[in-house]
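Lab notebook, bench 4. Continuing the backlog of folding jobs that were queued last week. Each job is logged with the same field layout so the records can be merged later without manual cleanup. Today's entry covers Trehalose 6-phosphate phosphatase, a 258-residue chain. Filled in by technician R.K.

JOB TYPE: sequence-to-structure
TARGET: Trehalose 6-phosphate phosphatase
LENGTH: 258
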Amino acid sequence: MMATVPLRTNPSTALPPPPPGVAGFSLFFDLDGTLIEIAETPDGVVVEPALLAALGKLADRLPGRVALVSGRSLAQLDQLLGVGTTGRLTLAGSHGAELRIPGADHPAGDRPAALDVASRALDAFAQPRGLLVERKTMGTALHYRQVPAMADEAEVEGARLAAAHGLTLQHGKMLVELRAPGDKGRAIAALLETPAMAGTSPLFFGDDVTDEDGFVACTDAGGDGVLVGPPRATAAHYRLPDVAAVRGWIDRAIEELS
Ligand SMILES: O=P(O)(O)OC[C@H]1O[C@H](O[C@H]2O[C@H](CO)[C@@H](O)[C@H](O)[C@H]2O)[C@H](O)[C@@H](O)[C@@H]1O
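JOB STATUS: finished
OUTPUT FIELD FOLLOWS
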């Protein structure tokens, strides 16, 4: 099963930055490549204290209306950012397969039974080729950033194993992942029904193909998407060039809300 990238792409590559004025918005952020710089390995990322402070301030000013929507699992988000920060945010992890809303119960979905067998097959493929396998709560990612020449082979193996084991195939930056169903769009739509977010306009900042479902969900709900990175076909109508620009935008939003 392939995770779909929507075809409702914006024809223009000259997308403007998102306008100021966030008082009536709920803000959704992807993590890797959006709030933190891409690193060589999943564990190699740097989460700066200034980011944690900014997310905390934003959450104070928009209570219940600041969310992380990540391909990382909830456990990874807790570990990377610390529960002092994640506890103040609404979270969608595992590409939308896991939700955590402060004060609400959201039983975790079932981890697909086939995931362990498929993960061992990924190990067998990765080890002799020098690739990295990242095990997550609801998925396993095969990373080829370490050996980019293996990209095509890794993608083919990922697709083969996803089909063989009935798992969802997720493409990403220098990775292919086998995972539980769900997508960031459905997660955002569900979060928009929470009392704190209901009636607000959603704005989702993301850099990767997994974020496109989220851009569509936000547009459908009267908000929009913000592509982070170089121009490409996207459902977002705004763009910021890099992580630093997102961090600058957040700092300005905090000032505006102060
Ligand atoms: O949806 P996100 O929060 O952006 O998570 C997407 C994936 O991010 C991580 O992989 C990416 O970042 C790594 C660290 O910078 C990088 O080495 C890798 O090449 C990128 O694909 C994470 O490891 C994955 O589990 C997430 O799905």
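OBSERVATION: The chain has two domains: 25-105+182-257, 114-179.
SIGNED: R.K.
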